Amino acid sequence: MEKFDVAIVGAGAAGLMCAAVAGQLGLRVVLIDHATRLAEKIRISGGGRCNFTNINAGPANYLSENPRFCRSALARYTPRDFLDLLKRHRIAWHEKHRGQLFCDESAEDVIEMLRNECAAGHVHWRMPCAVHTVAYTEAGGAHRYHLTTDAGHIAAKRLVIATGGLSIPKIGATDWGYRIARQFGLDIVEPRPALVPLMFDTSTWAPFAGLSGLSLEVDVSTGKGKDAGSFLEDLLFTHRGLSGPAILQISSFWTPGQPITLNLAPTSDIEAALFEAKASSKRQLSNLLAQWVPARLADAWVANSGLSPQARVQELPDKALRSLAQAFSGWTLKPCGSEGWRKAEVTRGGVDTRALSSATLEARTQPGLHFVGEVVDVTGWLGGYNFQWAWASAVVCAQAMSESIQAAKAVGDGTWPSQGDALS
User: Is the pLDDT of residue 415 over 70?
Assistant: First the structure.
């Protein structure tokens, strides 16, 4: 049996950061992961350059059944703090779009930085290594977690679950973290794919399937009241539906059966422009619409509206122009589903944050059990926000564990030998 202050299961962004900080604060840490490659989600993010944070990250950029929960961690570890860490490791970066920050070179730079930070904290590795069972004991006021793993029996004073959600199963995503939460009586907010392309039934999408690969900036919205979402972003047509940043963003707000609305020309007053053209132009309608959207989309739009491809704006009645303009700036579609877990970048839902302390990420009813990163019901927008939640939740969790364990050691609460001797 090996003994540690902290056992962390999951060596992704949150797990690596938590292990590094806890180790450097003097705790004896073991980091366990079942994967053969380290931090694959970091590696593939941002087109291989890792969109590691967003300089504008704040509570308003996150979705949760308990929306105030993320405030504490995000305030205590900010994007500037992560940039300071990159600076210490001489990793160059750039801002690409709306506060999104990327490595100049490669996502591998972030992985290597986190590996080096773990080395500085003398973190012990068990990878690849599956955890088969988790048990909890409490005696004399001291609690312990006992893990049976491929590498043998591990005991720890604190257990951190950093196993992520269900997105991208081909790189190892599982429901293990949710199962552990349920084992210890914590509720789960139903997980569903987020930041994911949306699909439409074949008949609805037939007029637009040939536009695959076409993109344009749109305003997309869905939902009502506190559940509403709206984004001005790029849209991408696919052979089965819609993707691109606009759709990935709105997918986190979309629920099955709900429509989405697209304004295809968000910076123009299409109705006024059409009536002005009617008074002064003999242009074909599709050519006129091509001022605001790609020509292929204009042609498909006119054809799907039941109008002749040769229809001229001057020949159309006012009612038809008004109806066309309203549909163009308020195209309402009802997705039949999403591309699912294989294409989802993150998971919405997870461990119910009402069961956790926002200051320590510890379960309120289960001493020494912590949850960080994507496994928790905190989901960020597209653009680096989810990585910032991973860093922030991991750091505040590590700091809280250090304070608690060091205080316990100071009063002689079962201090364990530093070399991991077998328990007597």
Answer: no
